[in-house]
Amino acid sequence: MATKSIKSGQEGICYLVGSGPGDPGLMTLRGKECIETADVLVYDFLSNSEFLKWAKPEAELIYAGKRAKEHSLSQEQINDLLVEKTRDGKVVTRLKGGDPFLFGRGGEEAHMLVESGVRFEFVPGISSALAGATYAGIPLTHRDHCSQLTIFTGHEDPNKPESMIDYEQIAKAPGTKVMLMGVERLRAICEALISSGGDPKMPVAMVRWATTSQQQTITGTLSTIADVAEAAKFTAPAVAVFGTVVNFRNELNWFESRPLLGKRVVVTRTSKQAGKLSSRLHGLGAEVLEIPAIRIERPEREDLERFAKMVVDAHTYEWIIFTSPNGVEHFFEAFYKIRSDAREIGGARIAAIGPGTSAKLSEYRMATDLMPEKHVAEGLLEAFKKEVGSIDNTTMLWVRPKEARDILSHGLTEAGVILDEAIAYRTIPETEDPTGNMKRFREEGADLITFTSASTVDGFLDLGLDISDKTRIATIGPITSETVVENGYDVDIEAEDHSIDGLIEAILEEL
């Protein structure tokens, strides 16, 4: 029967969730819900670290990864852990690569939960048996080639007295055959299939790290694929596809043609803001490591009180200047706590430093009256002189971060502006590593690091992460580049258009 926590009376439940083959876009909506509601998240080696971002800040994250000859926890320890946490009244999400019931050990874990009398649910996932072939451009079935699919494992329990795999039946079965795991035994398995009647000339493809930016595919025949794999130093995790459908790869290979495939790129924006840049890079084939160098926090009490007063008085200014999307967000969050109608902002005209800030203003149904060609403070000063003319005795409110450069305030003041500066937020160096990406960067490095502000440069270096000579640096503009150089590093790529789109374009031109 279901158990309840002695302390809270809350009934626990364990969700056994298939996380798919690696591409976070292949996680099911139900699986995402289970991650978001989990008190405890127990995850595998093959589960994409991006999924950890969906967990609640207070969720307990437990790595239970298992790879060849390396087990962080034994299966028995994992079983006991799931039971213990669920009995404590927790919502436990067990995140398993692929599908928990397809050559995984979801059945064993569920059986233990049943015996222990705790509630559980299964959430299927997309298996690499299906997605691996698809991302390699191989249709598993085709009207002109096959109407049958056989899936088998190349890795059995080493404690079994004898193999349960009937290679003769597999060799004789018509249609496509897919093997999960078994890379280390590939030669023996191919020889067993040939000796059991398999066609030595049967096309074979092997897909490594399927659906991720590290995806690699090799092809051969049943008699040659082991030699090809050894020559390529091909290692697990991989899925093998046997059959004439492999020949379709030559014309249907869609995923591996992406321009940034195989590149590992670090994104240093805040967790909240990283989405657009990360999504674009991922869509171009890159493996994205989000390592937020900074986080955004509210101003200290004195600044916050002053900020609130200026928001109240916003309608009294002739111009309101926004130099970041964060400033826009914090301003209107405060504005709509006080006002109920956007028109109460009065006749104030709005200046935005760049397209990202302007786009954020549009979310609040606010038009941008002035935006410089160069998306930096100096560009904004030039735009005022060129588009507005004399700004002597003009009242302006600058919505800014605590750490903003003073070049804008000096320039406006020298031009005779009556300027008030409203500190809307602070940028604080990030110190947490919730996804483990800092550890991965230290151990594996990256091909490219992106910096979108001077504060992300300072914050990243404050994390104590060394940037090797092999890692290239891309910045969103000259101010950010200046900070990189001041810290002793060279800038390899600088966006001409100082925006996320401009940064992406510059990266594509150079990589």
Describe the overall structure:
The protein has 511 residues and is α/β, with parallel strands linked by helices. The protein has 4 domains: 13-126, Cobalt-precorrin-4 Transmethylase, domain 1 (3-Layer(aba) Sandwich); 130-257, Methyltransferase, Cobalt-precorrin-4 Transmethylase, Domain 2 (2-Layer Sandwich), CATH 3.30.950.10; 264-293 and 430-510, Rossmann fold; 299-429, Rossmann fold (3-Layer(aba) Sandwich). The chain has 18 helices and 22 strands. It has helices at residues 29-37, 75-87, 106-116, 128-135, 167-172, 186-195, 225-231, 249-252, 275-283, 301-312, 325-338, 355-363, 377-388, 407-414, 437-444, 454-462, 478-486, 500-510, and strands at 13-18, 40-43, 60-63, 66-67, 70-71, 91-96, 119-123, 149-153, 176-180, 203-208, 216-221, 238-242, 264-267, 287-290, 294-297, 319-322, 349-352, 395-401, 418-429, 448-451, 472-475, 493-494. A 5-stranded parallel beta sheet has the order 3-2-6-1-7, sandwiched between helices. A hairpin with a 7-residue loop joins strand 10 and strand 11 (216-221). Helix 16 packs parallel to helix 17 (478-486). The radius of gyration is 28 Å and the shape is elongated. The model is unreliable at 1-9 (pLDDT under 50).
